[in-house]
Specification:
Blueprint: E1 3-7, E2 10-13, E3 18-25, E4 28-39, E5 46-52, E6 57-59, E7 67-72, E8 77-82, E9 91-102, E10 105-110, E11 114-119
Parallel strand pairs: 2-11
Antiparallel strand pairs: 1-3, 3-8, 4-5, 4-9, 5-6, 7-8, 9-10, 9-11
């Protein structure tokens, strides 16, 4: 059974930094794309950033230049370094994987979410 477990959320002041981690566990052969979505109060779910197994990165315009996504393929782990944080970054952040291959096949998976709160 595949699980994506996030860590690193919390409370930070505006201008500060946080680092989120998400580790995928289970009988995993490979993961095509890993990334982060967020759900802000009163907003639709937003793709924050994603990264392929080859290291190609993509960012939402709202975070480009402030957030950096990376992954450790050997550990099936993705990270999100968040710098120069703003109150509007306050959200529940969800780890996401696409094209995760296990002995049972291939599918998309989600983490349980971690709260990030940026105070002004």
């Amino acid at each position: 059974q595949v699980q994506l477990v996030e860590s690193g959320g919390g409370l930070v002041q505006a201008g500060g930094s946080l680092r989120l981690s998400c580790a995928a566990s289970g009988s995993i052969f490979s993961i095509n794309v890993m990334g982060w979505y967020r759900l802000r109060p009163g907003k639709q779910r937003e793709l924050v950033a994603h990264i392929t197994g080859g290291g190609n990165e993509n960012y939402a315009d709202s975070v480009r230049g402030r957030f950096t996504i990376s992954r450790d393929n050997a550990k099936n782990t993705v990270y999100l370094q968040m710098n120069s944080m703003k109150p509007e970054d306050t959200a529940v952040y969800y780890c996401w994987s696409r094209g995760l291959v296990t002995t049972a096949g291939m599918g998309d998976y989600w983490g349980q979410g971690t709260q990030v709160t940026v105070s002004s």
